[in-house]
Prior knowledge:
The complex is a heterodimer of chains A (417) and B (496).
Chain A: E1 4-13, H1 17-28, E2 33-36, E3 52-54, E4 63-64, H2 65-78, E5 82-84, E6 88-96, E7 99-106, E8 109-120, E9 124-126, E10 135-136, E11 142-144, H3 145-153, E12 157-158, E13 162-166, H4 170-181, E14 185-190, H5 200-208, E15 213-214, E16 217-223, E17 230-235, E18 248-251, E19 254-257, E20 261-263, H6 266-269, E21 295-297, H7 308-328, E22 337-341, E23 345-349, E24 352-353, E25 359-365, E26 369-376, E27 381-388, E28 394-398, H8 400-404, E29 409-416
Parallel strand pairs in A: 1-2, 1-8, 2-5, 8-21, 10-16, 11-19, 13-14, 13-19, 14-15, 22-29
Antiparallel strand pairs in A: 3-4, 6-7, 7-8, 9-20, 16-17, 17-18, 22-24, 23-25, 25-28, 26-27, 26-29
Helix pairs in contact in A: 1-2, 1-7, 3-4, 4-5
Chain B: E1 3-8, H1 12-21, E2 27-32, E3 49-50, H2 62-81, E4 86-87, E5 91-95, H3 100-114, E6 120-123, H4 124-130, E7 140-144, E8 148-150, H5 152-165, E9 169-171, E10 176-182, E11 185-191, E12 194-197, E13 200-203, H6 209-215, E14 223-233, E15 243-246, E16 256-259, E17 265-268, E18 272-273, H7 286-299, E19 309-320, E20 326-329, E21 336-340, H8 346-363, H9 390-399, E22 406-408, E23 413-414, H10 415-428, H11 435-442, H12 454-466, E24 485-486
Parallel strand pairs in B: 1-2, 1-13, 2-9, 5-15, 13-21
Antiparallel strand pairs in B: 3-8, 4-8, 5-7, 6-7, 10-11, 11-12, 14-17, 14-18, 14-19, 16-17, 20-21, 22-23
Helix pairs in contact in B: 1-5, 1-8, 2-8, 10-11, 10-12
Flavin-adenine dinucleotide is lined by residues 8-14, 32-35, 40-43, 46-49, 51, 175-176, 204-208, 212, 228, 269, 315-317, 342-348 of chain B.
Amino acid sequence: MNSTILQYDVVVIGGGPAGLAAAVKAKEYxxxxxxxxxxxxxxxxxxxxxxxxxxxxYFREELTGPEFSHRFMQRVKDLKIDYFVKARVLEIxxxxxxxxxxxFTSPEGAFEVWTKAIIxxxxxxxxxxxxxxxxxxxxxxxxxxxxAQTLMDIYGVxxxxxxxxVGSGDVGLIxxxxxALEGAKVKAVIELMPYPGGLARNVMILRDFSIPLYLxxxxxxxxxxxxxxxxxxxxxxxxxxxxxxxxxxIKCDTMIISAGLIPQVxxxxxxxxxxxxATGGPVVNxxxxxxxxxIFVAGNSLLINDLVDxxxxxGELAAYGAKLFIENGGxxxxxxxxxxxxxxxRLAVPHYLSGKRDVYIYARVKKPMxxxxxxxxxxxxxxxxxVVRPAEMLRIRLRKEEIAKAKDKITMEVIxx
Amino acid sequence: MKTKVAIIGAGIVGASIARVLSRxxxxxxxxxxxxxxxxxxxxxxxxxxxxxxxxxxPDKYPMRAKLCxxxxxxxxxxxxxxxxxxxxxxxxxxxxxxxxxxxxxxLLERGKRNGVPEMRIIDREELFHLEPNVNPNALGALxxxxxxxxxxxxxxxxxxxxxxxxxVKVHLETEVxxxxxxxxxxxxxxxxxxxxxxxxxINAAGLYADEISKMAGxxxxxxxPRKGEYWIFDEGIPGPxxxxxxxxxxxxxxxxxxxxxxGHLMIGPNAQDLPKDYKxxxxxxxxxxxEVWQKAQxxxxxxxxxxxxxxxxxxxxxxxxxxxxxxxxxxxxxxxxNVAGIRSPGLTSAPAIGYEVRDIIERDLGIKLKEKEKxxxxxxxxxxxxxxxxxxxxxxxxxxxxxxxxxxxxxxxSEGDVLEAIERMKxxxxxxxxxxxxxxxxxxxxxxxxxxFCKVVIINLLAREYGILPWKVTLKGKGSExxxxxxxxxxxxxxx
Lengths: 417, 496
Ligand SMILES: Cc1cc2nc3c(=O)[nH]c(=O)nc-3n(C[C@H](O)[C@H](O)[C@H](O)COP(=O)(O)OP(=O)(O)OC[C@H]3O[C@@H](n4cnc5c(N)ncnc54)[C@H](O)[C@@H]3O)c2cc1C
């Protein structure tokens, strides 16, 4: 190998909010940190998110994406954290439980980094038109929401003027507003489920801009010669099956796909990290360590979050995990208590709890319910909630004393009051 | 004096003809293509197989039978000279019922007649040894080791680059709209970019070959489109080691299950005849894709879940009247050569078609061809970052840091690869920059995320290198621009 060899305590892969928070915290703990990102700039997707709504919990102020990431970048500078941009990790090697190798390439050359721990924070990718079964022509004017956002808000390009948005998650709704604000006609937002996919505050956007929302509908086909000319929409029943005879066409020149995010874990699956099919991200313990010792994950590569504040929090927890790992030569726990998913729980992270520390559980329900109790039967814990929705992640704190009451598992379930 | 040759259509066939003819001193060759880049017609969307040559009945389709096996043999040389991505992995035509063996025997016989080497029928045990995941009820197969796979557009690009290096002139975005014939002799072609003089006009216009032929006054055949649809799945899904066919029916070779050369499982195509005027309808359909799924499952039951699909696409076969390739100098119009109805196995046959046309020029047009003293048979493939060793990366990066910068994460394509692709585009005369032109040269945007991260970066590189504004960059030629203007264009009320 001709690559330059480097040595660090922790390598943080990914310079979005999770990675930035992790790098800053790890450095504050006195660890020797290297931060890597493949973009031209640090901040992950935040620099393209020019709308407000970031940092309400973390900074107790409402910031835009660029402002939020700027604050972290200032910390990276002040703390003199080593970082590379335009640096793509090609491979992670699990040399032993206590040593890892990160191979990356950059305009400065190819490098091999020996490190004790890795914090993996590479974010998510968006589902594209083919994955959601849209057929028809492969023409210009079809973008994922994030792609359109990058085009508009980083590079200043207007993709089109008559827009149909597929998916009513936060990203789709925010892009609906973004297009409307720049003078485009947003002709419809099409949502497969019977309820909107985004946070309530974002669903308001549709009313503010008089954008029609079609619930229980899907886009099935796109047609056009060189670019999108129209899309075909169909109604679906409660089992999400298409109802024949309900099809109609919407004329537009642009189709934005905002059909959900998938954690990017390719480098991890390559070394045998166990993946939770429910989150699409790795299985982790309460320090966000994966099933490969010394590899921690945070942010959207762990699970899809709806608030950047939780992402930053996960980054800091992973940094704490890395610190403990390095200090102790591994994360000690005599037994792990498994977090089980009960009624109406679609996903819950972390998967294993030690009972040695307080934990935030991040979870999502399968379907909306009102007047419910979140129940943890094994530890006699009940939390009343007026409403739960799939779009809104639950974040529940369990204290270590509570966790310690359980023998080998804790079930989390939603029950009607 | 040089004989001027106009080849209409820069698909695999036109390109192959251009390469073969570029060897001769006394020809001046013009390759004319209406699209913004080469290889965007039929040659773009197909199964990418170098067929074995056992399939075509020499009594009914003598041209196909002769040129397929000859083409297969020639490809072995061409892929090396031109560094075209390929694999020789062999095919298995799978028998699911006892009666299927009768058909396999027929194919074996026919293959022998056509001169196909090394074919044999294998039993169940050997089949499962070669393909453990084939339908457990399979009874055996016809094994054709000489079948291979290539990158069809990379092949057209490689051939055209080599042809240009040997003096061929490429005219892109140039649509032939008329053929000038005087006293029964061709004089040249009328195009949207003016008149191109020619003593020989070769019609290799794929789906549109009947229309071109009519322009010369020859209308004894028609081409109708026959659609085939495909699914491609994400990397990491185990596919077969060989090209798997079902036992063919009289109408079709059937839905193929294969691991295409970039390692993705691919299934397709079906065959659906379209009306004659649907020659540009390459849309995918629910019904067609469903049919492909069902049929593929018959030989390969372990299809992945539907959301593991990364792309679906459709191609149109140019089906001629009569079914056989039409390759001949038309007597009524001196100098006019039809190379029409090049349906499957046209990709396989293309190099042989090139030589066939050369022979026609010598034999039927009576032109004595003089070989060049220096003709360059070689062409170098562009740098693919994903194929480099770490020391090679560092050497390249030292020379040009762009090679260290990954643009497409899924397929590990570096900025250096993209810049090289752009240089190559300019070399053959691509005037309108498109993401597809970069995609077909580098593989960027063809991975798991289908370009949602890298397309924007590529657009900016294209804009910079071509000196245009980013929104003027196209996806696939004029009319498919990335945007309508800068982000404030609608607010200023300036968008058309
Ligand atoms: C679904 C499908 C599967 C197939 N699978 C295989 C396979 O596995 N193996 C195999 O060997 N073969 C296969 N084939 C067949 C093979 O793809 C074709 O035979 C081959 O690509 C034809 O090449 P071509 O150059 O004749 O046509 P094209 O690639 O279409 O080239 C013709 C060119 O002419 C241009 N043109 C047309 N009109 C004009 C004009 N007026 N002025 C200027 N330019 C013009 C077009 O734009 C086009 O680029 C398949 C085909 C299909 C559709």
